[in-house]
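Here we describe the complex-level prediction in full. Unlike the single-chain runs in Section 2.1, the two entities below were treated as one system.
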Amino acid sequence: MHEDKSETVMTPDEETKRPARGGVSRRNFLQFAGAVGATTAFVSKARVASAGNGWTTSLDDFPKEKLVGMYRTMLKSRTWEDTFKELFLAGKDGLYGAFHMSIGMEASSVGTISALREDDYIASNHRGHSHLIAKGGDLNKMSAELFFKQTGYNKGFGGSMHITDVSKGILGMNGIIGPQYLFAAGAGYSAKVRGTDQVAVAFGGDGSVNNGWYYSGLRNAALYKLPMIAIVENNGYQIAMPQERTNNLRNLSDLGAGLDIAYETVNGMDVLAVHTVMQRAVARARAGEGPTLIETKTYRFMDHSGLAGAKPGVLGAFGLPYRSDSEVRAWIAEDPIPKLRRQLIANDIITDAEADQVVAEVKQLVDDSIEFARSSPLTIPEAGLENVFAGTSVKASQFVGI
Amino acid sequence: MSNKNSTYAILEAIQHEMRNDPHLTMLYEYQRPVAADPLGNVIDLYKEFGDLRIPDWGPIDEEWLLGGAAGIAMTGVRAISHLPSMTTVRCFELVFNQVGKLRHMTGGQVNMPLVVWQDASGRRPGSAGQHADAGQEALYAAIPGVKVVIPANAYDAKGLFTAALRDPDPVIFFQYGAAINGVQIDVPDDPYVIPLGEAAIRQEGTDLTIVGYGPAAVEINKAAPDLKSFGISAEIIDPRTLKPLPIDPIIASVRKTGRLLVVDHGHESHGTASEIIARVAMAVPGAKFGRSTFPDAPPPGAREMIAWMTPDAPKVVEASKKMMQA
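The structure predicted for the assembly as a whole is:
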């Protein structure tokens, strides 16, 4: 558990003076979030998960299974990625390829996706392990895909950045920034044509709002009132470039005003706040009221990609040139997983021992998935010619014939 | 059965498929899918299928028309994206990095029953630059995972469009202006399929094989009587599909004639003509090869310039004569 090291804690008085939306700098936001975190930790008996800015959420609004489920799913994502981080660092399994961790951002993925049904769609991005796990992704198949094994979700064709499970409405992680907004709008259009009340959700980071597909997906979802929700997971950095140097907007959801759609910015380090905002968006989408743009203010504790600044057994990546270590520690103090655990225990929803039991179960699942991946067969080289078109293979052309 | 133009023939194919598939949806911009045949029959897809499946006059946003249609297709619903001619490669990135790769990248999970109905202007005078292009089909045919179809007449257009709609993979369907009314041909009213990847041998011959598709096939067709009058027995082949490319009948023909002329309204370098000649050259050593293409220059607006630069029927005849002397 990490200590809260944010320097300033706002008093409740200052909180009430804050306007309902807008005008919050990233640093102030963190201080504000810190205050909320501190409030929930100490005023736990108030059974209030988050406060201010329209996010107020009582634990009483959620059944126990839902709350424990969110805790379990966030842990699953954290433990799975953390285990892979350790495996990459240890270097024993010969792991290779792209690896973008969501560690720190689990409240955003789990808070949003836990408001969906199994038949809803998500279009995920390069940082999508957590989205997949939240949508019910199978850990064995995910692990095997990171090992590029035949038993992986994509049979070794994709790797970490492209994991897909169409059967669970997971239209795929994707290594390109932005098409998620078009795909989700299209999937929403499909739901409308088929007369279902399915919802389609696009995920992107603060960098993904900077190209035209974002605007196009949202604009057309607004035009046709599509059941589409865009989640902008604002972790503050487009790779190594801070948000204020890539965008004139402070709250990225403000674009929604210009599109005349529903939009909210929410504390992405608070799973219940995120979930509450998402529930509203899903209800609107199912009711035919069109898209919602949600910005979750969050933070990745690790580097953009790979293992720079990472150490075995240490949460967070430190010593990176584009951000300060104190900033990283301040956000780690907001870690949504211990935060939810504190709330659940303080409000007698689960006991400390029960929480430990969840931790142990999740660890077992993750360890089993690694064993499954290790013991699975490698791909057959010739298989690379398959799956270009349905039911056929392309011909080999790399060997010179005579 | 009547003498329909390609657009009517394509709408007939779409109408039939839409009547049988309650979800098939088309995104398009600025031009309602309406056409009439010579007998006065009118197909109006918007009127018949309504604003949801044929959303009226969509926004000028080709990324949406293609990316949205791809999103629809990814959910198992067949979709058509109809794009105007001057935007032939506007969505190239979405085709290159998404539409063509998703099945492979996901280990076969993603079906993409998507037809990109791509208008193509071809080498017409008075438009210049962006509105008189040809040859972009070669760019798409170079991408793994997408099929590329280019009919030269209304009969092929209908049969190939039906095949494209029933295909589980993405198909880029080029409809050139020249192919709309270029070759008059009767088109049956009932649906039929021309399988993707089957060439049409338009005329059998023994002296010279001439290959061309789309607008080039229209010009070759116009040249056929003159070739005959000059005593050249030409075997004329229209591949109709660039991917999969039906190379076998072309190879078989060149084995017989010993000469291959490829006519292409695309540019000289790195175009379809190069690909066809390379494949045949490796299979038929000793054969003679020639190509007549649009030069490596953008299309100029003035009639004299663009007409001189375009491989038309007289140039096909000239090229054929030269090849017979070689």
